[in-house]
Amino acid sequence: MNIEVLQHFIKVYEKKSVNSAAKELFITPQGLSKTIKQLEMDLEAELFTRGPRGMEATECGELLHARARHICYLVEDIKKEISIISGKKGVLNVVISYSAMTIMPVDIVYRFTELNPEITLKLREVPDEYPIESMLEEEVDVGLIVGDGADIIDCEYELIGHGEVVVVVSNEHQLAQKDEVSLWELNKETLVIKAPVKGKENVFVEKCLEFGFTPNVKHEFGNVLTAHRLCQLQGLVAISNDFTENSLQNECIKVLKLKEKIPQNVYLITRKRGMQSNTVLSFQTYIREMSQSL
């Protein structure tokens, strides 16, 4: 068994088809089938069964998939460290959520490579509701993620920015006379909220459901400027966070605090390992120092 065999197995697992996997791997289906059969012989276990939706992993196949992804990631991590030690460029894969960029601007994140020219930074923006489990499933080394900290598991993390959910209205809205509102006061309002990612609910909606009512959501936005426009033109109420609103300073809207505090902090998240790579440690130190100076 080698890394290539594990990578081929993972591709068949993901595609549920030898033909589809072989096409992406640029090899013949016959050759890929032979590889899977040999792997089953080596492990003395059946890894796939044929079902109505294609090749379904057996219990042994599920276990191997979980371990194989981890092994492949560790091998890539070792290659990165060796490439840096040998003087070659390393690659650091980072995800940053939209709101986190208002605390840690993208130009400051990229400045890390100016101080460490031997490292190539691959940065990807993700929605605020980016699920932490996605970071573990993808080839991501570090994340700058918005959340409340309660759903961060199997990762190392540290708080780099405090924040909370706020309510946004136009200056002409009746709620603009207040500086703070409660969830109950929003029960009858028509709302716009951040669009959640698939499989994950917006934190504000979750809080409303805890209080026993379903909020009247008319629109889910990706860009907060869209939310501001809907507040101004249609008199809707937007749900945002304080650090995003502080960065925009829109004179046509008013930001209200929420009595029932809903944390929206920014966390620096890394995969949990016994020993972190020097590349990750350097990036952690850099972000920590930048967050204290901003």
UniProtKB/TrEMBL annotation:
| Native source organism of the sequence | Halalkalibacter hemicellulosilyticusJCM 9152
Family per similarity comment: Belongs to the LysR transcriptional regulatory family.
Instruction: Specify the HTH lysR-type domain's residue ranges.
Output: 1-58
Q: Which Gene3D superfamilies match?
A: 3.40.190.290, Winged helix-like DNA-binding domain superfamily/Winged helix DNA-binding domain
Q: What domain of life?
A: Bacteria
Task: Please report the name of this protein according to its UniProt entry.
Answer: Transcriptional regulator
Q: Name one Pfam family in it.
A: LysR_substrate
The UniProt keyword set, sorted, is: DNA-binding, Transcription, Transcription regulation
